[in-house]
Structure formats: structure tokens, C-alpha cells
Amino acid sequence: MALGGFSTTGDECPLPLGAELIAPTSSAWRLGTTPVRTLTADGGARRVHLLGWCGATDAHMSALVNRPVPTDVAWRWPGNYAVVEENSDNVVLHTDPVSAFPLYCVPWRSGWAWSTSARLLAALAGSGPDAQRLACAVLTPSVPALAAGRSFFTNVEQVAPGCRTELPRIGTAPRRINLWRPDPEVSRLAHRHLRHTLAGSVTLRTEADPRLSSDLSGGLDSTSVAVLAADSLPAPHRLNAVTIHPEGNHGGADLRYARLTAASNGRIVHHLLPMNARHLPYTFITSVPPTDEPAPSTLTQARLRGQFRWMRDHLGTRTHLTGDGGDSVLFQPAAHLADLIRHRHLGRAASEAFGWARLRRTPVTSLLRDAVAMARTGRHAALTGLAGHLVGQNIGNRSGGHWFPLLPLPDWAEPAAVRCVVDAFREAATHPDPLAGLDASVRIAMDEIREVARTAVADAELAASCGVDLHNPFLDPTVVNAVLTNPLERRPAVHAYKPLLVRAVGDLLPPEVAARTTKGGFDADHYAGMRANLDDLAVLTDGHLVGLGLIEPRRLRSQLRRAAAGIPMSLATFEQALTAEAWLVAHHREPAPAWTTQPVRSAP
């Protein structure tokens, strides 16, 4: 499913094979069933398209076409969506600030092509995978700032989030104006605003599909979404809530909390879905469909797609809700301590540092020293400094690591890959920051949220391959904005476990669930999956990434064998390499999307 168009108009504009025009004489097209609403101004000189899931009413839409589009249009209503204006001399893209509904663009003839699909635009432009972007994804996954504006295909740009971007009809570069800043809003309480926006985001989906389902993992995030969904469903519908668990294990904490929630809410129908050896991590990871970028759930795709297929076949699920994104939105970055110091809240900084030190079992003096150093270091200085330290292989230097914590460079990273990362740091340091002046914790959270939201689209593509439309309400811009605009004085302590969410929806949760401070996992399954799929994974160590000159296969294979043997080590970059390789396998396995200039009918 994809949407797109051109800054030019006329019969010369091609279409992806199988797509249809959104409206007669428009250059905008739709492939699949993504929601689109279109209005045309009197005289037909201007159209406004609302793309994606959005809570705007018909009255809201009418106002858009007959007057200037409001600056906050892309985060004014629940949902994740974009707004596109088609004018006689340009196309204007209004992008959501979170990247939950990303748009991409590429030069085409004398103008521009735009789309929700980077892969479709790459096929139009004849572009292949971007080696620098892949190197950053593998070696610096903890630095999403390096991905800003860059897709996984050469020459295909991501349109800047939270911006008004003009794509001229002929010849010139796009013109961008950043419209969104999560500046503090002292006039409203964040927990009440979070309750209102999260409930609105969930209700948008339940009203559109009352037969939807939801995760119910037992954690705070999915439980909050599930109870809001159950309470907002119109009668007589009840929510199908699904809890996955290891086969034969019915005693885990997550399952107990999920059962407590289901028992406390009469509108939830609880389903247990056991996972067995067929669903182990690393199983058939190259079977993923081609996506715009490597999907975060690639290594666990057998479990994920197994769940989607089961829900589709047994529950009739077409729409599914998750609590994904809640961690990124709700957890307070450690940079919060630096913000407290910079704003001279020294007593609170010391108090929270002691709490954080107890939780992490680390000396409080080192936390405070790091916070002071970060308070004195700007974002651009950190990017510039880390580029220099990478060249010298001194990645432990602390001048930029507070802003952008780097993972150790693995010995299988080729010099060309390191050069790609250094170049990316230098490029990022030269670009003006559209969100300059924000507190460091807010700026860092924004980078991470955008990374999580954009990559979640690739997971949604995995779900779509199983016939399920995947939604993450925590990543709606209205929800993110409610949290990030909380003033420093009211932000939770860095060591607290999601107190804002508990205050927002705690009255809907069983007390035991609201009091949770941990969450479960499948770590044992992770290593079992690696051992079970060792031969298949070994093949991936000498593939497309090697062909791009980014990794040394013998050393990567050695790390794989040591990891499968249970030798303790960091697996972050290793897993990123396998994920990227699986994405490249899928990309090269499938034919490039086809485009056609044959006439097609318009969408009804």
C-alpha cells in the first residue's frame, strides 16, 4: 500500500503498476487501500488530499480547501497522516512531526516525485541501496541523528518531518519551513493531555474497525491501549486481546498481569497464543517481504507474522493495536540530569542522580560528572567531536558520548564502513538543527521517537503481508506532543517508571499492573533461536554487505559462532548487520516495483 504523486501535472506522469489516480487531472495516485480524502476548491485550481488515518471531520476538511492550511495541520487531529496541497505551480507537503507517516521525494525530470514508499521512488529513479545509510544503521543504531533526511536508497530523501515543504513544478530545490516545536506548555497538565490524546488515538481506530484486536502483553503500554480500546468500542463489540507466551509456560509475570487486566474488564476477550520452536528468533529471517527499510522485527519475524496470521485466521483481525513506541515516548532520557543542571535545579539533579545510581548500581559521582559535561556540550559540537574521535578510534572519549552514546566498533567493520559513519557525522554537524534550543532530553527523545516511528512503518509492512493493518497509538503526533511539551519542572524523575502514563490512565488499570516497574522478555528464546538457525545465519555473513565493502565476513562469522556458543558479548551491531543483510536479500530477491504510463481510471 502506498500513495504518491508529482509536482508536475499532465499525462506524462507515470504510475506504479496497479495504482489509480486519486482524482481526475491530479498527479496523485494510490496503490492499495490506505485512506485518502480529497477536496477540490471552487474552480479546480487547488486540491487538498488528507492521506492516512486522521480524526478530522468533514467540516474540518472543508475548511482546509477554502482557506490557507493551518500550520499545525499535520498534528491537529488524532491519527498518523499527511496533508498534501496540489496547486497550479507546486505541490505542498505537510508532514507529521513524528515520522509515523513518512513521505519521501526524488528528482524526476524537471520536477519532483513524492511518495509514502521510498522503494517505489527508488525504482522510478533507478536507485539502489545506500551504502552510507546501511553503514550507519549497522554500526551506529544508537545515533538516529545520522539518518535525518536520508532513506535507504541513494538520492531518495525523506521529506523533513513537522515541516511545510514546497516541491516546485519546475527545476528548483524544495523549500522547507519547520513548523513544529515541542516547546513547554505550562497551561495544561501533561497527564490529562496524555489521557485525552491517547484515548482519542485509540478511539479513532475502534470507530473505524470495531472488530480490531490488541496486544495485551501485561506491560503498562499495551495494557493501557487495550483497556482504552475495550472501553471505547461500541456495543455489543468486545476487544480481542492477545497475549503471546512460551509454549508450556503459563506462570510468567507478564501472563499473570495480562490475566488480571482481562479479568477486571468485562469487555475484553482474552486469547493466549503459545509460541514454540517454529517461532524462535532468527527463524527464516530472509523470508521477510521487501520493505522501505530494514524492519525492527526482522529477527523475530517468525513470531510476529505467526501472531498476525493466527489473529487473521482465528479472530478475523484486520486491524491490530500495539503499545509499541511507549518506551521511547514515556521514558525520560538520562540527559534530563543535564537539563536540570543547565537550568540550575541543582538539588533536584542531585536527588534524581542518587535515584538513578541506585537503579543502575553505578557511582552517583560519575552520573553527575557526565551530566555536567553534557550541560556544557552542544549537539553540533558533540557530532563534530565524535567524527574526529571515530577517525582516531577513540570512541570512549566523553565529549560527544553524552549526546550520542556509541557502541564499540566491531572488528568485522571494514574501514570503508567506518569512513561512511564519519562522513555521516560530519554531514549531520553541518546541517542547521530545526529544533535548536530545546532541552537536551527533549531533543534526544525526539530523535529516538522519530527513528522508532519511521522504522515501525517497516514492521507495519510485515503485518500488511499477512493481511493485518498495524497501529501504534503511542506514536501518533498528538500523543507525542502531549508528553514532550511537559515543562521541565513537571517532568518525571529519570529513574521513575512511566509515572505520567500511570497518572493518565491508572484508574483504568488493576492496581498491580499500575504498580509495575519491570517488563518481561524472551532472552532465552533468543539464544536458542541463534543456535537452531546457525547454518542459515552463517550464509548471511558473506552476502550483500560484504559486496558493498562494509563488513569482513570471516570475523563476522566468528562472532556468530561465539555468540551461539553463549559467550557473553554485545550483540547490538551484530544483530543490526543480520537485519540489514536480510533486508538486502529481500530487496534483491524481488523484482523492482514497475511503473507504467498506460492510462488508468481514477479512484472512486
From TrEMBL:
<dbReference type="InterPro" id="IPR014729">
    <property type="entry name" value="Rossmann-like_a/b/a_fold"/>
</dbReference>
<keyword id="KW-0061">Asparagine biosynthesis</keyword>
<dbReference type="InterPro" id="IPR029055">
    <property type="entry name" value="Ntn_hydrolases_N"/>
</dbReference>
<dbReference type="InterPro" id="IPR001962">
    <property type="entry name" value="Asn_synthase"/>
</dbReference>
<dbReference type="Pfam" id="PF00733">
    <property type="entry name" value="Asn_synthase"/>
</dbReference>
<protein>
    <recommendedName>
        <fullName>asparagine synthase (glutamine-hydrolyzing)</fullName>
        <ecNumber>6.3.5.4</ecNumber>
    </recommendedName>
</protein>
<feature type="domain" description="Asparagine synthetase">
    <location>
        <begin position="193"/>
        <end position="584"/>
    </location>
</feature>
<dbReference type="GO" id="GO:0005829">
    <property type="term" value="C:cytosol"/>
</dbReference>
<keyword id="KW-0028">Amino-acid biosynthesis</keyword>
<dbReference type="GO" id="GO:0004066">
    <property type="term" value="F:asparagine synthase (glutamine-hydrolyzing) activity"/>
</dbReference>
<comment type="pathway">
    <text>Amino-acid biosynthesis; L-asparagine biosynthesis; L-asparagine from L-aspartate (L-Gln route): step 1/1.</text>
</comment>
<dbReference type="GO" id="GO:0006529">
    <property type="term" value="P:asparagine biosynthetic process"/>
</dbReference>
<dbReference type="InterPro" id="IPR051786">
    <property type="entry name" value="ASN_synthetase/amidase"/>
</dbReference>
